[in-house]
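Predict the holo structure. Ligand: zinc ion.
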Amino acid sequence: MRYAQIKSGLKLHLVYELPTGGVTQPICGKGTNGYRMTINVPLANACKNCLRIINSKSFDANKFLQSYFNHKR
Ligand SMILES: [Zn+2]
């Protein structure tokens, strides 16, 4: 998992690294065409929606990645 920032000064969304390189869309569902940067550590405030999702017991990283690939097809 990585933190990704869409624009300077904005919150960091949580994303997953793809086996193909690059990262997924934010797990909160916000769409973006790309990120300004991705980092391993939260240097700024993380997106509350992403945090709520990742902290929920029903969140399954594999399912998230699977639905991501299904969308891409
Ligand atoms: Zn988010």
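The pocket of zinc ion is lined by residues 13, 26, 28, 30, 47, 49-50 (CB under 6 Å). The chain has one domain: 2-72.
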